Amino acid sequence: MLIRSRLAAALAAVVLASCGGGGSEPLVSSAGITSVKVMGDSLTDSGTFEGNDGYGRIFSVQGSESEPNVIWTERTASVLGLAPLCPFFGIAISDEPSTPPTVTTNPTCSSYGVGGGRINNPASKGGESSPLSIVMQMRTAAAVNGSYSASDLLLIDGGGNDAADLVGAYLAAAKDSGASYQALLLTLLPPATVGAVLPTAGGPEQAGGLYMQALADQFYGAIKTYGLELGAQRIALLNMPGITNTPRFQMVLASIEQAKGAAARAQAEGLFRSWIAAFNNRLAANVGSDKRVVVVDFFTSFDDQVKNPAQYKLTNVTTPACPATGVGTDGLPEYNFQTCTAAALSAAPPAGVTDPNWWKTYAFADGFHPTPYGYQLLGQLVARSLAKAGWL
Amino acid sequence: MKTTTIRFALLSLAMAGSVAAHAQAAGSWLVRAGVTNITPDVTSGDLSAPSLAGTKSDVGASTRLGGGITYIVNEHFSLDMPLALPFKHTLTGDGAIAGVGKIGDVKVLPMTLFAQYRFGEPTAAFRPYVGAGPTYAKFFKERSTATLSGLTGGTPANPTTLSVESKLVPTIQLGGTWTLNERWFVDAMVAKTFLKTRTTLSTGQTLDIKLDPVTVSVAVGMRF
User: Fold this and answer.
1) What does the pLDDT look like over A36-62, one tens digit per residue?
2) How many CB atoms lie within 10 A of CB A355?
């Protein structure tokens, strides 16, 4: 009897199995994450500057079909099944250059990331009392939230603007005899170190590496104080991407090549990349084997996207999708994210192109920021890291 | 259930006093039930672009109640159709996404018709056999996880789903039948299916994967 009934069941299964139907499990965190807190720079900004002239909601193409989850932090929240992120800070820039921007806060929002955010925000931009300081963002989030638990996921990035500052000051040495470079170094390095290293042969280059290590220490110190020590158990931290890959830096490097030749360009690019590596290596060493912090290797992935665009279905990794709207004081093109919308780009394809989706496979929106697809690729990279940690 | 079946098989073995005369006579039908395990021997290709280079998948094993029906054509030849409840295989990340855990699961119903050659005399207590035949591997009820959506840019409104192509492929087998008495027998077999298939994601990427599953089945049967 037993065998007969089993056989009957098996036969029934054969018949029943012919009807298909699949699907997807709902997008929720199987690890119990119910809240995402974001601190960082423009790559994490969910609308701090929205409403100001020249700014859009995000630092990318506006109004894409990915809205409201475009940037990597928003995509991560959506994969965890959470509501769309909104900006904690609101910054209104005055028309009068002498009037400081007005900062408002929205405590119901948990994305503290601000475009232009720096780990070592210069005193001229408000230092650590301004939301432009990623340290200030972390401190504010800590004050608002009190403490963190396993249900909180902290998404943090930073350092790209700091690295750009360092490169800018280093290159300015030709004009100011190294004054601004030395001043920047002194904001993080002891005067004795700067005094000893800078005058030596290769000293300025070495000092840049030391600065980036100190920057990584400052970054990790803030993560420790305002995250780990307050109970945070899940922190995903982007390492610094190779900003030399961006169109903006490629232009800077091209101008070096024009002035001093290809060897000088290669040397400069190698130097800047070594600084980024110094930051990333130090950051990884600071985190060590701490399972509470996942370092997402944005550096390697971004390099790979630029070297192997076809693997990522990227059709252009050199030209910004948005049109340049002017030239800045630094001689580099300026862009306007307010007017760089999906509709505007689709309506104005480059010469010889008819596909309105042309911009969707570009890597860069402007000289420094990804397109929505570039953010998607970053989001996918973060998802891999979260899944490996068992947090997804 | 597995334990019960094995216990039952052992009991039957113990009770088998003598071998019946025509356990596998021409024209007879044999029906069996037991357990079947399918273990894929996976060689995964890379997920096509856009993807992280070297994104692969692994596929887990599945064990189900199984069995089959055999028709004895003549002294040495038989036709056999294995039957089983649908198998459910877990898909996990491998290669560039090794360690991400489960990315989905899929049910499969392999339908095979074996032509078998049975060695020895029909009256022999033990008859080894070899078989070969076509298998239609019907894949259905593919389910993706939030992890797959995260890895491929899926969104809550548009989560990434997957579909696995069903295929008609060859299978070979090696087995043996132990006759316990005129009515009962024990059958054990191992089969190898040569199965390559393609998984397609709703985001457009494809993954070619060689599953080449090994099937092991043990069953207790009755002769009619």
Assistant:
1) 999 999 999 999 999 999 999 999 999
2) 11
Tally A–B CB contacts below 8 A: 146
Chain B nearest C-alpha distance from A85 (Å)? 14
CATH class (in words) of the domain with range A29-389: alpha beta
For residue A300, the chain B residue with the least C-alpha distance is B52
Question: CATH number of the domain that B130 lies in?
Answer: 2.40.160.20
Contact between chains at B49 and A312 (C-beta distance less than 8 A): yes
CA distance B147 to B162: 13
Nearest CA in chain A to B146: A27
| Domain region containing B114 | 2-223
Please give the model's pTM, rounded to 2 decimal places: 0.89
Q: What is the ipTM score, two decimals?
A: 0.86
Q: Number of folded domains in chain B?
A: 1
Boundaries of every domain in chain A: 29-389
- Extended beta strands in chain B, E state: 29-39, 43-44, 55-59, 62-72, 77-84, 87-95, 102-112, 114-118, 126-144, 162-164, 167-179, 184-193, 196-201, 206-210, 214-223
Q: CB-CB: which of B31, B51, B153 is closest to A379?
A: B153
Question: Closest approach of chain B CAs to the CA of A235, in angstroms?
Answer: 17
CB contact under 8 A, A23 and B144: yes
